[in-house]
Amino acid sequence: MALTTQVGDVKVTLVRETLQGVSADGLYVDPEPAVFDANRDWLCPEFMDESGELPLSIHALVLESQGQIIMVDTCIGNRPIDMIPQMSNLGSGFLDELAAAGYEPEDIDVVLCTHLHFDHVGWNTVLVDGQWVPTFPNARYLFNRTEYEYWDSGAEGAAITFGDAVRPVLEAGLADLVDSDHAVTDEIRLEPTPGHTPGHVSVGISSSGQQAVITGDLVHHPVQFVAPEWVMTADDDPDRASATRVAFRERYGDSGILIFGTHFAGPSCGHLSHTDGRWTFTAHH
Ligand SMILES: [Zn+2]
Q1: Residue 132 — very low, low, confident or very high, per pLDDT cuts 50/70/90?
Q2: In terms of residue numbers, what domain contains 60?
Q3: 169-222 pLDDT, tens per residue?
Q4: CATH number for the domain including 8?
Q5: What is the distance in A from the centroid of ligand 1 to the CA of 201?
Q6: Number of domains within the chain
Q7: Distance 5 CA to ligand 1 centre (A)
Q8: What's the CA-to-centroid distance between 263 and ligand 1, angstroms?
């Protein structure tokens, strides 16, 4: 079931691929249990279950802005992923979910990936007659230039499907390598948020007096707003990732700006506030 949120004139629709529980140890290098205990009142039940497991969503956000249909991140897709068997050949009904939300692949005008890790590029391509071809034939695919060049140079990390989910898009002539503050429409603009990967971007939405931001993987779970120093297992540059989280919290906390997570559970959006000396994230339903 697709969830829809309006930000000014921009319609935001969440199309989910998977929702799975993970342990804090699976997500973070050195998580402190006391932080979860101290924030149980707002983490449960939406962002943590009674056993302490953290629901992690993999979804795309589809934006309608000024006549353009824009997909932000494309999940894992149906593909073999040698290093992660449990995420291989998922056989998910993502494209059916997309259709149920009212969008056929041909309708998508722009695909943008916040970064090029495997769980953000998957549906960029599908396998047809043994070849990986773009799933969205009428789209321009936007990749940050720094991000593309980093992985294209053979860097090691979680961009393990670069060869079959990113490079074929370039070869098909559908990709644009853009700057990290690129304006997609007058209402939608990339924002540089490096650290998790070198060319990682967030996505800002500003329309008719309302504002929102899509985090990408600068945070994986709202608990990181409380503990921005925690290193996520796939953070490329931990110090830079932490500094980016602190700066993001300063900028968007207590602002009234709606924050969409790229892996948050539930509606995946909410407000970050600082009251009585502590940070809380309240889901927006
Ligand atoms: Zn991710």
Answers
A1: very high
A2: 3-283
A3: 999 999 999 999 999 999 999 999 999 999 999 999 999 999 999 999 999 999
A4: 3.60.15.10
A5: 12
A6: 1
A7: 21
A8: 7
